[in-house]
Input
Amino acid sequence: MKHVLPVIACFGILSGILVAGLWPFHPPRNQVTWLKDKNGLYFGDYGTVMSTGAFSSTGSGNKVSCTIELWLQTALTDTSGTILTFYTPDNPLRFSIHQSLTDLMLQSTRSSSPGRAGKQRIYVNAVFGQGRSVFVTVASGAQGTSVYVNGTPSRTDRGFQLMPYACAGQLIVGDSPGQSDTWPGQMKGLAIYDNELTAPAVLRHFNAWTQNGQPEMNQHEHIVGLYLFDERAGNVIHNHAGPGVALSIPATYTVLDQAFLEPFWDEFNMSSGYWKNILKNIAGFVPLGVCFCAYFALVRKSRRAGLVTVMIGGAVSLTIEVLQAFLPTRDSGTTDIFTNTLGTWIGVMLYNAVIEKWELAKRG
Output
């Protein structure tokens, strides 16, 4: 019996870690539904929409110019997520639009030197409000990028310049490629132009969208994608700009080009969420270190109980991260392998410290 209890304890801890790391064990249903009494889509906790083909910048001679119009309403103001991304295999995050709490964030790849590329970001404060619709226009060209909120200029950044063909590739709405970064809320309109709209045109479009449910068509504005979300049924969103790229609602939640063991240097960031996950992943494996070290030391009488335990912790973490690459609700990365292994080692140290203190008490 004295050998059975440690085995049960170790099995219970290991099972808990596997459930916490792999639940729900399968891709969930894609949580994208049509709004009931008006045009638009609702994106739930795990929802995504993808284009059936790739956009190409062919309508304008200036390939760094594009404009995106978004009519949307966030479900939460205490969360962050990717609203829209243009994706290509060689550059998964060439241009994307995000919610960051109440702020709007734009992210793009920029050329920092020949053969190299870096990320650039700009924020527009206080764009989103609980239960409040907002019409966002992002117009970018050779002189920089301007963001309009409800037809009014909100920020212009001349340093935020898109690389050529940034608004080309496969379009992902409500999520990000590589790793899950879903955006919960309503989307009631989306338009993509192959040139930079002027301020008067932006205001005219805002008025037309909010009054008529769609922009005024102008052949000089090179519209390549217009989605009114007026189908109200089915899994296809048609392109009203013409025979262009349609959008599709997958039946199950899918992350395009999901990352496999993403390098820790790519995962690193200074956000509070990142460091909370670090601490959580360390703490989660401390019980495994304590329990398995006790089992190997007291039951198996192993002289290398600590080393064996740390190796088991690392192997368990590696197994979880490999399996997470096949679960769209999970992120497969190498950072967790290091933090989980560190947590196992801390558990071993705690066990050794307790045993040492107990032996000293016996002698005293």
Observations:
- The longest helix spans residues 335-363.
